[in-house]
Each structure stands twice: as structure tokens, then as C-alpha cells.
Description:
Number of domains: 3
CATH topology of the largest domain: Phosphoribosyl-aminoimidazole Synthetase, Chain A, domain 2
Strand content: 25-35%
CATH superfamily of the largest domain: PurM-like C-terminal domain
CATH architecture of the largest domain: Alpha-Beta Complex
Radius of gyration: 20 Å
Distance between the termini: 27 Å
Structural class: alpha+beta
Amino acid sequence: MRYLTRWLKISRCKLMNETELIHQIIADLGEQTQGETVMVGPGDDAAVVQWNTTDNIVVTTDTFVVDRHFSEDTPGDLVGYRCIAATLSDVVAMSARPCYVTVALTVETNSQDWVFEFVKGVRTCCAETNTRIIGGNMACGNKSATVSAIGLVPDSTYVRRDTVCNGDDIWLTGTLGATKLAISANVDWQPKPLEELLQKRDNCFMAAYFLPRVRIEFVEKIRSYVTAMTDISDGLQTELEHMIRSSNLGARIDVEQVNMWDRRHKAHTLGCDDSYELLFTLPKAKRTKLEQNASETNTECRCIGEITSTRGVKFFDNGQEIFPVSGYSHF
Length: 331
């Protein structure tokens, strides 16, 4: 009977998608996810813990696996940079300034050259974001990297992703769609030096994909008046669903206002993209303030829609409702 019970539990997990599985794990963990100093526990982009009377600590962890997040032949420096930038993006989405990272790296025994290239990418991203590498771990096996990031935010000024308000405008930084193009082109792409690609993020989708921007200064300007924020790691549609999940609200998106690298792939771009751009909401009265802050930090952003009283996420392109490809799920 014990074996049958165990099999049923495993079967239950296999039938769940990633979001459902995470919610079930959180439920099973129960009160161990809560505490007097836990301001935000599992379920958001990062956790928030009360540190002292002036600051909160923001903590997150991400894992990147070969043949799932990057191909075997992807240069190590590009993988290293992207792993750090993607993890720091979660900290920034909570409106915190990244301070420290640890990196756990698993590689095959014959991958030392790749490791040193990976380290170069890690160092470059950390230098660009003024983040310190304070430790890590190494193991032998198929390539993977697990990055933990720690940031600081002034007490109670962190921004959650599930605090949208009816009537808020929905804003998005940057351009979406690099994922689809990069994966399609990666077979024949001849990698360029990291330093060269860093200068091409605004006009080269491969550079934008491997070297996502971490928009620290912009977020520090806007955190006092945005109502909710997240980053695009599992597709615009999925992130919007996360934002409205705990409310009775919905979202209406004007697809023409979404910047895309290639509009021929709009269904995929809207549903399955990990550009790590920022998605956030704010009252209409704050639009002028936002545009000023965007200009001050040289940040491209657009109003792409509105939070509505009608539940669900709807996409309209020239007045016609369209349906994106389903967002990414590990399960």
C-alpha cells in the first residue's frame, strides 16, 4: 500500500504543469514558508525578508540546464552573462538593487576552457550591475548553473507582482521576441565576442537574447508609484496571468503597442518569450512621471494595455482578438 500511495503522489505531480506543481509544493510546505520576518514568501519573483529597520533583503534562485536553457555549443561567456542577468532580473522586478550572487556550476571534466569563458560572462554582468560574487560550488556532470541573488530595498518599498488595481495602465520595457529568433538562428549562427555583442543589444536579436539588460536605475526611479511589477521569463501571457491570479481582475492588451523584433511571430512572441523585460502597472495619472523617468534612464517602454474588471487576459490586434502560443512550462 505504501508503494501505491507513493506512485499516486508521483502521478499527481506528473499531471501538473509548472505553476500548479509550485502551488502544490508551497501548500505542502505549509507554515514553514511563513514567519514574522518573511514579508514575501514563495510564489513571487523573489522572496523578501525583513533585515533591519531601514532595509529588506530580496532573495531569489534560478537554475539553467544544458539543452533546456542553452545548447551544448553555446559559448560559455554568453551562458554566464545570461544566467546572472536573468537571476538579477527577478531581484530588480521586486524593485531591489542587486548586491550579491553565488553560483553553483556543474560541468563535465573536459570543460575547463568553457568554464573560464563562463566565468568571464559572470564577471562582466556582475561588473555592469555592481554586484559581488561571494561564493558558489562546483560539481561534475551535465552542464548546469544555479545562481542565487541577494538584493536590498528600502523597508516596505518592494513591489509585488500580484497587486494590480482596476484601471491601471500596463507598461512594458524594451522589445519582445528575441527568444524565437535566437533559437531558430542558433544552428547557423557564428558567435561574436561578448564585448562586441554588448554594443549591439538594441539592433541585434542575438545580442538582446544572450545579454538581457538589468534595468536597476529605472526601477529605482519608478518603485514609489508602480502598483505591481514582474519580469518576462515565461511569456507575456503567463506573466499577466500571474499578476491577476489572486484578484477578480483581467487584462486587455493592445498588440500593436507591443514592441517586437519580428511581428510575423507575434503569437509566439506574446506567449512564449523570455526576454527578461519588465512588465508593470501604474495609475494613469502617473504616465507623465513615468515617461520622464524613462527618458532620464534611457529606457524604452510603452503602455500596452489596461487592467480591467473582466477576468482573464485578452489580446487584441487591430480590434481582433488573437490567441498566443501557450507560455513556457517545465512540466
